Amino acid sequence: MPVHNADIAAQFDRLADLLEIEEANRYRVRAYRRAAQTLRELPESVATMVAEGRDLTELPGIGEDLAGKIAEIVRTGRCRMLDEVAARTPSTLAALTSIAGLGPKRVQALHERLGVRNLDDLARAVKAGRVRALPRFGAAFEARLAAELGRRERAAPRLRISTAEDFASGLLAHLGALPGIEEEVVAGSFRRRKETVGDLDILATCADGPGAIEHFVRYEEVERVTARGPTRAAVILKSGVQVDLRVVPSESYGAALHYFTGSKAHNIAIRRRGQARGLKINEYGVFEGKRRVGGRSEGEVFAAVGLPFIPPELREDRGEIEAAAEGRLPDLVTLSDIRGDLHVHTRASDGRNTLAEMAEAARALGYAYAAVTDHSRHATIAHGLDPERLAAQLDEIDRLNETWTDFRLLKSCEVDILADGRLDLPDRVLRRLDLTVCAVHYQFELSAEAQTERILRAMDNRRFNILAHPSGRLIGERPGYAVDLDRVLEGAKARGCFVEVNAHPSRLDLDDVHCRAAKALGLRVSIGADAHSTVGLRAMRFGVDQARRGWLEADDVLNTRAWPDLKALLAR
Ligand code: DGT
Ligand code: CA
Ligand code: CA
Fold it and tell me: For ligand 1, atom 10, which residue shows the shortest CA distance?
């Protein structure tokens, strides 16, 4: 049974929760949480890394002990230590600590005083009004719990695209193992490369529909089959992920792929265009009366309505059909257009690898340059660099740069934007850098007006080049700070600054809509992996996907250029 990053992360989180309830050492608890986060954000399958014998201690927050536990879970599906801890403390209790306001102490009290062992118990106790009587709880807190429990019931969680990939690969491998299956592909929002997906929509071609369905529902990770017919099935995996499968004959492949890729709004617009030409378009093909006139490939579907192929990332009915009809579809940027990474951390701040290791990894990806952007001093928890440490790093970069002719480390820094809009390092230091990547990392609670002013004031500094992760959001964790992004983009353009598309799958910031807004202003973006380890460099492709969803072409992206051209653009 394939073990996913998200599964291991969930085990570590559970372990951390249980240890917390047991009031274990908080550094130990934090180590498991950090490892869980690393795994969740890793753009690669850690099971594959183990299979390839790679060194897991290169990952952020993973030491020998955790690497051993990961390998154990990959091999056996279980973690002995978690089993031991769970034997002492009911492991369903752990889920309770994820409720806002319920720390380990309160969970312990609920368990000891009211016998609450899980979410259902808690909901019952809240309903019965028994929670308010506990010391340090009270009626107001009980009401908050009731609201939180209600909200959880309603919100279906969406998966980050990187997590979805992790689940998709196992599913596709399982389907592909059945000899009768010719094609298997994930369609839906996954193929459109949305930042999060609600469920996975898998399309397969097979002459024997029922046989394919039978094979699919027997996948080891299926927990429950929620719908089943001769050519379709819907299941829920043990992880809670929902998966739809449709099986079609190969002459319908293109039509079905188009239909299930969506979006729904795009489909409706295409179908309407077909109707205007006397055609009926559905998931089985393109029909003129009863006669099939196309549908083996997606290209045939588009051709039937007089359009060129529209890349899936654009299919949101945001003008792509009109653009296609008028021959002005963008020539979207691709990963192979990227010449270097402009957001890379090393061990000097909160990264895992050395300067030399990050450089070699970037070079191995075929990059011509990578900008070293360790944090500046204000970011104390990230071991931000003061002028002296930064100066030492710049000297080391000079030395390293003498060792390559085909690659260059760019001198940079992820400079904190201070509360008053000043930059965290003096100009005399910033002057030595090839470029700066500036970011807001604290004081998120300012008003939109004040936050916008703060950023624009920072951009007034002529050393300011790129605004990193402009909204500050963390997908599925926290919304961005309040800010008028349109004004920020305009301000950047007016001052000769640029903005980043942070490619980390938990950020993807700018989002697709603001990528397009930047393009409309003629404002170019950089795509940066925000790599904190050599593996992290591979997140670049998620940023490229996001840029494609924002209609960006190679020319719109700074780091598709050779360094001399990029340098000329950066000059203010
Ligand atoms: P998600 O799962 O919420 O991230 O978003 P999607 O786009 O994957 O949506 P989903 O899974 O509900 O459906 C997959 C595709 O199937 C969708 O993108 C378009 C197509 N589809 C679903 N329902 C309809 C419909 O009522 N009409 C049309 N024309 N297409 C539909
Ligand atoms: Ca879907
Ligand atoms: Ca679906």
Answer: 188
CATH class of the domain at 160-325: alpha beta
Closest-lying ligand 1 atom to the alpha carbon of residue 158: 4
User: What is the pTM (predicted TM-score) of this model?
Assistant: 0.80
Where does 335-570 sit in CATH, by number?
3.20.20.140
DSSP strand pairing (285-288 vs 280-282): antiparallel
- 291-294 and 242-248 strand pairing: unpaired
The percent of residues above 70 in pLDDT, for the chain, comes to 99
Please state which CATH class domain 5-154 belongs to. Answer: mainly alpha
- Residue 341: which pLDDT band, with cuts at 50, 70 and 90? very high
- Ligand 1 in contact with 264 (CB < 6 A)? yes
pLDDT at 479: 87
- Kindly give the distance from the C-alpha atom of residue 267 to the centroid of ligand 1, in angstroms, as a whole number: 9
Atom of ligand 1 nearest to the CA of 189: 8
| Token pair listed for 557 | 């992206």
Q: Which residues pair with 203 in a beta bridge?
A: 185, 246
What is the rounded average pLDDT for all residues in the chain?
94
Q: Is the pLDDT assigned to residue 420 strictly greater than 90?
A: yes
Please tell me the distance from the alpha carbon of residue 183 to that of residue 168, in angstroms, as a whole number.
14
**Has residue 12 got a pLDDT over 70?**
yes
Question: Whole-angstrom Cα distance, residue 515 to residue 502?
Answer: 11
Taking the CA of residue 188 as reference, the ligand 1 atom at the shortest distance is 8
How far is it, in rounded angstroms, from Cα 443 to Cα 270? Answer: 46
CA distance to 17, 164, 189, 527, per residue, from 197 (Å): 27, 7, 6, 22
- What is the domain partition of the chain in residue ranges? 5-154, 160-325, 335-570
Of 53, 50, 45, the residue nearest 75 (C-alpha): 50
pLDDT for the residue numbered 100: 75
Print burial letters for 516-535: b (CB count within 10 Å at least 16), e (below 16): bbbbeeebbbbbbbbbbbbb
Contact 372, 340 (CB under 8 A): no
Count the neighbouring beta carbons within 10 Å of the beta carbon of residue 152. 14
Average pLDDT of the segment spanning 78-105:
80
Rounded-to-integer distance, Cα 251 and Cα 255, Å: 9
